[in-house]
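Progress report, Aim 2. The chain analyzed during this reporting quarter is listed below.
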Amino acid sequence: MNTEQHILILGADGYLGWPTAMYFSKLGYQVTAVDNYFRRNACTELDVGMLYPIPTLIERAKIWHERTGREIKVVIGDLQDPELMRSFFDGRVQYQWAIDQSFTGVPGTVVHYAEQPSAPYSLLDYKHANFTLANNLLITNNLLFAIRDFNRATHIVHVGTMGEYGTPDIDIEEGWLEIEHKGRKDTFLFPRQASSLYHTTKIMDTDLMWFAVRTWGLKITDLMQGPVYGIKTDASNVDERLNTIFNYDEIFGTVINRFITQAIVGYPLTVYGKGGQTRGYININDTLQCIHKSTINPPSPGKLRIYNQIMETFSVNELAEKIQKVGKTLGYPVEIQRVDNPRKEAEEHYYNPTYQGLLELGVEPHYLTDKSLASMFKVVEMYKQNIRKDVIYKGMQW
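Predicted structure tokens for the chain:
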């Protein structure tokens, strides 16, 4: 491993950002972590549940250093400010915490998580919609211009979403589709059909990056990720204070995490509508593998490479039944309750995505087994006293 490799992680305080920072630090990378605490502040604003309190990003970096001897430099700031973004490339960056305050150098890779990540949040009202649009698109645009102006060799690894594709009645390819029309052929971005404003911003991200690749010769990997589940990673095992943020509410909680939490406190699993909504899912540890494999296998300049970042597909009904089964073996009398679907989405549909690219790079999947579900039950059980039933489901509509 090249210990001089510098990786910049945008959105490093989030559900995926902090585990990614530790993962690369453990591998010997120089890591700079930046965040503006949006997720924490939004949880406070909306009074939604976090399973346990978590230290600040600066406190986490200090704990990590105490336990491992490794440094994660921290910057707290809003990346909608283009000058803050540019400071990571031109040497003006000011660290809020670092052992060595000197400029680490231009990052070889930027992992871009720094976006408002919730579909329900994006549709709460026009103010939250406006924030989602402005935040997500301005940060991506600021990043593209910073790399164009300072170091076009920097590789962007952007985490998109399988939700960009929607649920088309054809197989979903990995980002691209060859079209034959009136006797001629060409390759285009796979058609997108977002189901929320959040997902729409992700489509716009892809379009912005595709423009930057074609126009400025940048090299970008765009990962179409499905819903993530899990808490523990190898790095967080050194101290429970290093666990990632864990939401179980309908705004920021992902479905498997939510269902396990509901099962533990005797709250019926909230299956929306008919429960036939099928998506691709991925363990948090596999997200880390995918980011790493993408980082060490960059595309050539002028190429936008797209992978579908999932490991298996399930319907909501299948997930609820799996969690009910495991819960009952652990002594929880889990019930399933169907509620009117608060979302505008197809509840029964064809869904057959391709997702071989990351496996071919060497990612070794963690599948959703009874054993893996039981291990998650055990972790969530430790914090049972913190779970608030009143924030689990409020029926937010769109």
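Residues 126-150 form the longest helix (25 residues). The radius of gyration is 20 Å. These observations will guide the mutagenesis work planned for the next reporting period.
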